[in-house]
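User: Fold this; tokens only.

Assistant: Input:
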Amino acid sequence: VQLVESGGGLVQAGDSLRLSCAASGRTFNLAVVGWFRQAPEKERELVATITWAYGITSYADSVKGRFTISFDYAKSTVYLQMSSLKPEDTAVYYCAAHTGTMRYDYWGQGTQVTVSS
């Protein structure tokens, strides 16, 4: 499985941004796709997940109500719609996937999101 993120950039606080994660390969094996982020000198954080088959979502408290994860099955693409962005959302965002093992074995290359105040 290959994952390719896109959509990062530099925005101002309060703006919105949508990240995309295009999956290819043996996607029928996938169980969950998640968006992680990692800021400099901080632990990696799982911000949102979606199940591949049923679209069940979950969110970290830090983004709940501001971020929305969704899935376009026809395009095998997972989106992360980010609204009301804050400077503390600045990080490299990665999408990752697992096949039901709860271990994220597949990772994208990451996309930088920078939110200026």
